[in-house]
Design goal:
This protein has 272 residues and is α+β, with helices and mostly antiparallel strands. The protein has 3 domains: 45 residues; 100 residues; 52 residues, Orthogonal Bundle (Arc Repressor Mutant, subunit A), CATH 1.10.10. It is 64% helix and 8% strand. It is built from 13 helices and 4 strands. A hairpin with a 6-residue loop joins strand 1 and strand 2. Helix 3 runs antiparallel to helix 4. The termini are far apart.
């Protein structure tokens, strides 16, 4: 059995004590655990018991770190998990603390999605594709993303599209109709709107003196130019093959391009 030979309060954090066993520093724990486990100088302590106490202290530290991280803004479960991993907590500690934070409603991905979408559509007009992309980057589960309709319906996206079109229609009202339409289409793509919904909104908001396909063919050409820039950038970083295509595709999708068009663009700039 090991013997506790010292309990010294830390200078920088007075809630924690350094524990010395057999004359040497062993570990540090919160003062509450000292009282809970009745740790006293001169007492014997089992090595297995030490392991349990250290794990319990790690859970307490992780929980407090989590509360601190959440104090700045709301976070997704994935964001919290990555934060804990950077702090080098073990997976079992991370899992237990995450579950505790969920029980306390400090982590609630469904409510996060609902609030995130509400905040976004209350600002500048934004399409569902861009919202889905941003939520995906934050680690929201596919299950929640597939149920986005309950928080952001196609009808709401149509209203958002009309807001954007009316805004740009006023901004470029002195431009020729063809040029104005192209700029409006590109704005819709950058903001992640569905092509079908955006076309329908265009029909209602402005009259177009050209075919949709002509307008979009020019967008495709601009997209190819943009994709080439992404290709050069990612190749310099060492990406190639499938990963390179995925990186370029994600970048284009973030700009609002349709996935079927992205496939066509990738086939033009990358040799299989």
């Amino acid at each position: 059995m090991a013997v506790i030979t010292g309990l010294i309060k830390q200078k920088r954090n007075e809630d924690y004590y350094n524990i010395f066993i057999d004359g040497s520093f062993a570990f540090s724990i919160h003062k509450e655990l000292i009282l809970l486990h009745n740790i006293k100088e001169g007492e014997e302590i089992d090595l297995n018991e030490i392991g349990k106490i250290i794990k319990e202290d790690n859970k307490k530290r992780a929980f407090n770190h989590g509360l601190y991280y959440l104090s700045f803004r709301r976070r997704t479960q994935n964001e919290i998990e990555k934060y804990f991993e950077k702090k080098n907590y073990s997976q079992d500690v991370i899992e237990e603390v995450i579950n505790k934070l969920i029980d306390y409603r400090m982590i609630d991905d469904q409510d996060y999605v609902k609030t995130f979408i509400s905040d976004k559509i209350g600002g500048n007009p934004i399409g569902r594709k861009k919202i889905l992309y941003e939520l995906q980057r934050k680690g929201i589960s596919q299950e929640l993303l597939l149920n986005i309709d309950q928080w952001y319906s196609e009808e709401e996206e149509y209203k958002q599209a009309k807001r954007l079109i009316e805004k740009y229609n006023r901004k470029y009202e002195k431009s020729p109709i063809r040029e104005r339409t192209q700029k409006i289409y590109m704005a819709g793509q950058r903001r992640g709107f569905s092509w079908e919904i955006f076309r329908k909104a265009i029909d209602e908001c402005i009259q177009i003196e050209e075919t949709y396909e002509d307008a979009y063919s020019i967008d495709i050409n601009q997209a190819i130019f943009l994709a080439q820039k992404y290709k050069t950038r990612y190749e310099k970083r060492g990406f190639k093959g499938y990963i390179l295509k995925q990186k370029i595709g994600q970048a284009l999708q973030n700009k609002g391009y349709r996935w079927e068009d992205i496939q066509e663009i990738l086939s033009k700039i990358i040799e299989e």
